[in-house]
# Entry
Amino acid sequence: MTDGATMSAKKDALVNIGGFFACNDKKTYDAVANLAVVYEGLHTYGGLAGRDMEAMAIGIREAVDDDHQAARIGQVRYLGRRIMEAGVPIVTPIGSHAVFLDARRILPHLDQDEYPAQALAAEIYRRSGVRAMERGNVSAGRDPKTGENRRPKLELVRLTIPRRVYTQAHMDFVVEATTETCERASAIRGLAMTHEPEYLRFFQARFEPLR
# Structure
């Protein structure tokens, strides 16, 4: 049981836009519906075109198909197992939509304020074109009272796998790119943040390598 939930339909509902909010409290529902009108569109469609709503309805049905889930989760586990076999530390157990590299263990020579997860993601992209996502000090933001970075316990690089996009050969390439980058981990330098937006800095911040 839960009091409320949100869902990004861009994940397992197999569409490129949309999502939903659900709750079991009428007062909360009315408040959210009012905000939807202000920011998204009438609560009956949330700013989505009719074709997108239809696609999402079909995607929700397909997403709960056992064969689809077995293929999707199986691909993620394949990637995670291959990376583990190569000696790269990841978060276990392996999840259902992404593999998380443990950047603190991969780059122990970098202080958290040198953004190790961001540095690792950038190096993987620089070497191979594989785009990953930082989930660490950059994402955690700053303490509003002290202005210091929050320094979370985890410094992770997320390798998220879109549904029905990549082949096993693509997964093998990601394994090779990740492994080769981590083999040269000691040479990876930390980063300095050169531009920090007020909100969501993990989307818009800019960095340069430390010398």
Summary: The mean pLDDT is 93. The beta strands are 4-8, 19-23, 98-102, 133-135, 156-160, 191-195, 206-209.
